[in-house]
Amino acid sequence: MEFTTPFFREFAESYSERSGPRLAKTLRPDVSTEKLRKICKSHNAHDIKSSLKRGLQLNAALADGLDQQEVQGWVDVYVAYWNGAKAILAARESSGDDGQSSELVWTKVYAAWTELVNVLIRGYQNCGFEAWTLPCLYVVCKHLRVFASNADDERNNNTSIDDSAAATFQDDFDPETNKRQKLEDCARVLSRVFMLCQSDRAPLEESRKWGIYYIANLLLKTYFKLNSASLSKNILNSLRAGGRDMPSFKAFPRSQQVTFKYHQGVLAFLEENYVDAETYLTEAWNDCYKNSVRNKELILTYLIPCRLVTNHTLPTEKLLAQYPRLQKLFLPLCRCIKRGELHKFDLALQEGEDEFVKRRIYLTLERGRDIALRNLLRKVFIARGFEEAKDGEKPVRRSRVPVAEFAAAISLGSQERIDNDEVECLLANMIYKNHMKGYISRQHGIVVLSKSGAFPGTGV
Amino acid sequence: MASSQTQIKKDDKAAAASKAEAQAPEQKPAALEEDDEFEDFPVDDWEQEDTEAASGGAAQHLWEESWDDDDTSDDFSAQLKEELKKVDAAKKR
Amino acid sequence: MSTWPATSAPSGVPPSTGYAASYSAPAYTSVHVRQSFGQSFSTPQPSYPAYGPTQTSSPSAANIPPTVNPAPPTAQEQSKTKIDWPDSVRRYVQRAFIPANLDASVTRSDMETKLKETITQANENGVMYTLDWDTMPLPQHMIREERARSLLPLHSRPQVQPPANAPGTTKKRKSWDQADAAASASASPTPPWRTGPTRLEDRVSFPSDRHQAGAEQPSKNTSKLNRADKRQKRNEGEYTTLREDTPPPAEGPVIGTCQDLEKRYLRLTAAPKPSQVRPPHILRQTLELLKKRWKKDQNYSYICDQFKSMRQDLTVQRIRDDFTVEVYEIHARIALEKGDLGEYNQCQTQLKALYKLGLKGKPNEFKAYRILYFIHTANRTELSNALADLTPAEKKDKAIKHALDVRSALALGNYHRFFQLYNETPNMGAYLMDMFVLRERLAALCNICKAYKQDVQLRFVTEELYFESDIEAAQFILDNGGQDLLEDRNGTIIFLTAKAGSRFDARRATAFSRVDIKGQI
After folding, report:
1. Among positive and negative, which fits the CA dihedral A302, A304, A306, A309?
2. What pLDDT score does A271 carry?
3. If you placed Cys at A217, which of A94, A138, A259, C39 could pair as Cys (CB 3.0 to 4.6 Å)?
4. Are residue A309 and residue A279 in the same domain, yes or no?
């Protein structure tokens, strides 16, 4: 919004209403180029400060007793915003024709916008900005991430410009991260904002602690993009440590709760902590906004492999049918597991490998092979039928199975034969992992299965 | 809204498919993509009744056991016997 | 005995020399392999700081004839009188003047000057006989590069020395880069890791019947597994990844003028003086010298320090070419052999980026190590990332496929397959696998004890867990608290699995809990 009378009225009204979201709108950079141009042209570098000051002071009364210090703080904020707007306008105009430009225009936008964040931080630290204005911080931080990514992309596409790796004289860092320079910087800025929120000692009802999950979520998204699980963990630990003086998690908006639970769940998942992962992802799923199909799909992408490991359950075909992408991803595997088709399972895993690996679920899905194998062995057991029934007694399944029979089942559908020692090894694993109850008698080449529940939890 | 979204997705898919065809199979598997990021929700907060759990998600049959007993095991027995014969034959050779 | 003398010494111990450490029945022939490995770890190595800035005299000075800074005229005089040209140099000169290699833009006299300069320098630096002249860029190429380099804005400063190695020369160095291990093993000088057979089966002196022979040949080596432990401890104490404050960026790359072959590593906090940085053609000679010294002295802390300073010189001059790759590859291999995982990991990380630039080298070999490394450190996230980085073609590469198979065998608990793969490890992967074979043996043993009743023959354990002999297998069981689990039944040793129950579970858990390696990025 250009800095003319309507802007000052808007500012003052937002202030008197103490409406953070309304105030935050005045700091949005995602407005039309036409609007940006108006903002930039409404002032020049010499008069921007004084006219902002005059405007805000004139409306101070309307703004419900805005004090001098606060006025000064907001003047600085809007000057920084104005500088940012100029940089964005320049970036949009220069990349308008062919999308390419000789200068690193987004790097400039990023720099200007970082300054805006810094000025805002000072506003909270020194000028008495109140917690209800937090949405301003949200809007500004959210776009900082966008600009950081733009700047990185622009630099990476423009290889002639950058060669800063050598400038540090060291080679003991990951050169890959250089590609994400600005995003890394953004993460540092955001973690300062995180600290700003976390360290507020004001009473809870007017504390910046209410901003903590919004910022934490931005940080988590950033760290995910940087592929840094360890930094993500730091955030979680830091939240856990400050838990006592925090508002209850349930008191935060659902959008923040669900986003946080999702990231928490995926992190646990990546560490193979599937029990926690299932808890967090299930909570995210249950609370998720019903119309956010894409987010529900993302939650299930990790929840499905997770449940396969934790309690060996599969998604129903009905559930998958609602998400075509997931259906394509998981249905073939799920069918093979259910039917105990070991070889086909291997093929299906191979088939989807690229996609699975990309989503970091391959290693988890691979463990579904144990379940497929369990089901196959179970089928062998069932197919062997019962001992000859003694009069009046309940029929008992034949529990002594030749290793060779299991071996034959394992090689079903495959051209490859594996030797009996390897088959025994697979059987030993089934027993070790409690998928199968019994023991191998090597001397006799048989497996003696338990008469009470040879395949625990499967009714046989 | 929902329908237009699916439309876009379809188009994306078609575009992605044709792109994949155009490119050699040597294409590098990418890192986590932009579109893998958890999206901003269209609203900040919502009522219990607008959650997935309340809107029928929980009532739905989402998960099932991992084995299937509907399979006619006669079929399987026959296959297994056949395979055993093959293995025996291979051994004798 | 040096670490890679296998061309001369009968190398003979297969994967698991470890378990006969305390066993030395005179009836058995002792076998030595990788022994220096263990030995060098039993004597404490000075750590890098010993070379630090406060010291005035280099510890290496005692071993190395002082390198005199070039005084060209005198040196040339000397060379004229003294030099008995080695064949390799003659071949190099001949190669330069082969018509097919001539370059119309370079005059004959320019070439001669350059040739003289190159050879003289090699002689002064004492590497004339060891430098790989067959892969040395020809004088005309050096000159062309010099010209090209002077045109680049970043390299516009006057050149004191010609770059001996820049991307443009790669074509002429095909033989070096593309030589496979076997071919270059016969060439001289030989990169040390290529000298010895690295396949485990090659290291076995009795490959025909492993079990039979194995039963008679326990090793007297110190336990390899213990060595692995020491390696790890050493790493933990020694290395941190913390970056110091980043110095202000330099304006452009430094163009080095330093003529010394050796240089101690110092962490820089400001742009170095050109006089302290060695240009590429000197670094090439340095590499030759270091290879020689490594082969001879096996002084790892010296070698590591020198390699770090080479890497630094390359970094500050922004040299990222095939030679850079070579330096990192060699350092990585040496570090790997010495179990210095921190340093190895630094090299591996840089190599990953260098390969991405499309430079020559052995990307598949190192991608395979990378996978094994992440298996060892149990870094699931990085393992996932490493998998995501592979192309379909790479997945079919022998070494990478091996590493992937190892991973999947372990993921599925298929110890049978795992130990087969252990025996088939390409390149130097066995050094990495050595680091986790102990814990996998314990895991397999736990499995067997739970699954088999009442007992199995000891021989079965020997075979499944790929022990060298029954004795080694027995020793392993004894070492892990199974004194009462072995029984002689009419001359057959029986392992009482049912009695063992979950006896080994705790040791297994301990073995798996200690995989934290400092220096991991």
Report:
1. negative
2. 87
3. A259
4. yes
